[in-house]
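so the lab meeting is tmrw and i was supposed to have these ready like two days ago... anyway. pasting both below. for each one the top line is the aa sequence and the line under it is the structure tokens. i havent really looked at them closely yet so no promises
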Amino acid sequence: VWLARSNSDAKLHTVWNGLPLPPPPIRTDAGHDRGSLDLVTIGRLAPEKRIGDIVEAIARLNRTTPCTLTIFGEGPLRDAIAEQITQLGLNERIQLAGNVSHDQVMARLGNADVLIHAADSEPFGLAMIEAMACGLPVVATRSSGAQEIVDHGVTGFLSPCADVDALVSSTLKLAEDPALRRRMGDAGRERAERLFSLEAHMIAMEKVWTEAIEVHRSKGSAINTNHATCARDVP
């Protein structure tokens, strides 16, 4: 919207949300090198999150590749999703974990193989960043937020929204190639530290404010921190 109205990016800065990241993961993957896969998804059980697509993907994957899924979250579609899991015969493969503490979620990510995310509406998915920080590749759909977080082919795979076949294909690549999972997981951790850590956020904010102060000084403007009106000229 800014670019369309101003026709300039001179005053446009991108500062990502910053998260306190966990310590770098110690991942051996010793128990996951035989083609099986342990997946996690995190999100409200609501239509826009398309959890049902993930359940269907797990059903298709299990025809050839053993895999499990833990679903964190609650919402209006819990009963419908539970029924879908039962009808597909996946009660031993999929766990509806509900809402649990953040520490429990992070511990689970630390022991999983892949985060899978199928939302068709996701402004900025913090769960994807947390998964990358834990060394997990991310399989996600091309919602606006996911496209900014996941580097397709480097830290995970992006696919069209509502395309279950694409979710299956991307996840199968990771199931069949432990080395690829490790490479993408390592790249995800590096990207999380570089762009989405609390430290990266503060450095970027400092850069914005430093530039703003220099612009005011160059104009001979006095910055009065007691009056909000001085912010109108800040880039």
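ok protien two:
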Amino acid sequence: FLRVAAENDPGRRKEFTPRLTRAMLLIGLPPAAALALLAGWIVKLLFSDLYLPAVLPLRLLIPGALAMGISRLIANDIAGRGRPLLNSYLAGAMLVLNLGLDLLWIPRYGIGGAALASSLCYGAALLVRMVIYCRLSGNRWRDLLIPRRGDPALVREGLRAFLSRPAPGRKETDRAGPGAPAKLP
């Protein structure tokens, strides 16, 4: 939000959010796919066979969680462009949609219906936000979702910078000394 609001260069402002959303997809899709594939094994290992009925709702929520993360990035851009009320209107509409789907599907499908309703609403919010964002920014949906050649390098740089930061509550000088992990290049 702050970066978009403060950016004076129209070209950099136009490219900032698409780079972040593409990076988020590159970072988020592999673990999401792995969790979906391994959910039964993970639930059984961590909680026992008694919790295996939670696997389907978990799998149904995974696409929605990824959509929600990307949607939040786009919402911050929209707000940074001076249009935060659009996000509020969308949140109200999604609340109504989610409640309607919950009332329809929970009695029939239980927790799986609730999970599906949530994922559908998060996905719908993402689609609507993408339309709004594209109209405000002049970007196309492909700019947000289709990875480009330099995106993997951007992700690697971001992860490297993140991993080289000191842990919260610790100063860089606290890491020095025998046995301290070496700073990543």
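from a quick look at the 2nd one: The mean pLDDT is 88. Residues 10-47 form the longest helix (38 residues). will dig more after coffe
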